[in-house]
């Protein structure tokens, strides 16, 4: 199989989903050629800094502005023309690379690149199959376009959402967000605790703010530090170097067991020993917590996709909502002391897990390629 995966680096989830799909294809068909393109950066590093940089700054410093853009581009169809013009430019620039690679299938793991698949078919009569892998727990207009063969969604609720947006039900597959098979290989608990100098006798709270390490992490940590019971605390700071430095300074003078970690490759191990994960509701984080059965407490959702993710979690009883995290200490303490409720949350998380999404996506890719090939052969016979 020759597969071309189009992504954009606006967060860790899109790239990880692309890598998981590539891993699954190569495991099943080692002779395959799979290329992942960080689309905007590939076309123009300057444009990537402008677009991605503006996006990251807006969610961090101007969330109300991002909320406005997200809402009106979805509900009222605004900004569609400007989005189409931008993606039309990207498609024109990318088309020679696509032709040179000659993929059997095109896959998009980002909303920006989902429209590129549609433009390719409409403008260039690209006849090879196309697949969109959505990396959140609700939909948005930027993800959903005509001239796309199939959509992978994270949950069954999204099947109805996409049908209401005009997609055929038989195009929508609730396989889940793909994660690496490595994530399923969890180390023994004793070795994980030993690696991070943690005790088996005390519960563990993990706090994180996604790959960017953003959100009210310090405020939440201060709330937890006021709890008298000696919980163990892991703070994942992601790519936020300043936050890591602050946490390291605090670790030296903290009575609690505080373990700051930078961007962590062993999230499967960390989540497997975590009694409560306090996190922003990013799509990949939710997916990984389901697989490890880790109870979720969510805070400071980014307006737009994370708010929709949070709505899904709360609607299905899959998380406790901390709001901004202000005065959350007593709530966290009560949660950790209620073993029956914690066990119930663990079971609900596990029941929502879709650990084999990447394998199912590979199988669907094979089906789509075969169907397109058969259709072309049939047309030749008719001629």
From TrEMBL:
<dbReference type="GO" id="GO:0009247">
    <property type="term" value="P:glycolipid biosynthetic process"/>
</dbReference>
<feature type="domain" description="Diacylglycerol glucosyltransferase N-terminal">
    <location>
        <begin position="14"/>
        <end position="179"/>
    </location>
</feature>
<comment type="similarity">
    <text>Belongs to the glycosyltransferase 28 family.</text>
</comment>
<dbReference type="GO" id="GO:0016758">
    <property type="term" value="F:hexosyltransferase activity"/>
</dbReference>
<dbReference type="InterPro" id="IPR050519">
    <property type="entry name" value="Glycosyltransf_28_UgtP"/>
</dbReference>
<dbReference type="InterPro" id="IPR007235">
    <property type="entry name" value="Glyco_trans_28_C"/>
</dbReference>
<keyword id="KW-0808">Transferase</keyword>
<dbReference type="Pfam" id="PF06925">
    <property type="entry name" value="MGDG_synth"/>
</dbReference>
<dbReference type="Pfam" id="PF04101">
    <property type="entry name" value="Glyco_tran_28_C"/>
</dbReference>
<protein>
    <submittedName>
        <fullName>Monogalactosyldiacylglycerol synthase</fullName>
    </submittedName>
</protein>
<dbReference type="InterPro" id="IPR009695">
    <property type="entry name" value="Diacylglyc_glucosyltr_N"/>
</dbReference>
<dbReference type="GO" id="GO:0016020">
    <property type="term" value="C:membrane"/>
</dbReference>
<feature type="domain" description="Glycosyl transferase family 28 C-terminal">
    <location>
        <begin position="204"/>
        <end position="359"/>
    </location>
</feature>
<keyword id="KW-0328">Glycosyltransferase</keyword>
């Amino acid at each position: 199989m020759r597969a071309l995966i189009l992504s954009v680096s606006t967060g860790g989830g899109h790239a990880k989903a692309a890598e998981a799909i590539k891993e699954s294809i190569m495991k099943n068909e080692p002779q395959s050629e799979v290329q992942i393109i960080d689309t905007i950066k590939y076309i123009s590093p300057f444009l990537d800094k402008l677009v991605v940089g503006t996006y990251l700054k807006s969610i961090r410093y101007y969330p109300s502005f991002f909320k406005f853009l997200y809402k009106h581009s979805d509900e009222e169809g605004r900004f569609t023309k400007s989005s189409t013009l931008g993606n039309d430019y990207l498609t024109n620039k990318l088309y020679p690379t696509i032709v040179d690679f000659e993929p059997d299938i095109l896959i998009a793991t980002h909303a920006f690149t989902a429209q590129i698949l549609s433009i390719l078919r409409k403008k260039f009569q690209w006849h090879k199959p196309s697949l969109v892998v959505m990396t959140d727990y609700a939909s948005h207009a930027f993800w959903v376009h005509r001239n796309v063969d199939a959509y992978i969604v994270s949950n069954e609720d999204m099947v109805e959402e996409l049908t209401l947006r005009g997609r055929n039900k038989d195009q929508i597959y609730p396989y889940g967000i793909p994660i690496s098979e490595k994530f399923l290989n969890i180390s023994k608990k004793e070795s994980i605790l030993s690696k991070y100098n943690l005790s088996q006798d005390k519960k563990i709270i993990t706090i994180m703010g996604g790959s960017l390490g953003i959100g009210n992490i310090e405020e939440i940590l201060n709330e937890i530090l006021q709890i008298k019971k000696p919980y163990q605390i892991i703070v994942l700071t992601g790519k936020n170097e300043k936050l890591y430095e602050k946490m390291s300074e605090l670790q030296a003078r903290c009575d609690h067991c505080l373990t700051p970690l930078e961007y962590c490759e062993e999230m499967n191990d960390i989540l497997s020993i975590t009694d409560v994960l306090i996190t922003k509701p990013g799509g990949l984080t939710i997916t990984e917590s389901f697989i490890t059965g880790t109870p979720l407490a969510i805070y400071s959702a980014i307006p737009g996709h994370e708010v929709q993710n949070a709505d899904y979690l709360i609607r299905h009883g899959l998380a406790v909502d901390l709001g901004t995290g202000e005065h959350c200490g007593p709530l966290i303490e009560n949660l950790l002391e209620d073993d029956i409720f914690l066990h119930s949350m663990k079971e609900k998380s596990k029941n929502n897990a879709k650990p084999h999404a990447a394998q199912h996506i590979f199988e669907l890719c094979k089906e789509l390629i075969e169907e397109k090939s058969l259709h072309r052969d049939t047309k030749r016979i008719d001629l």
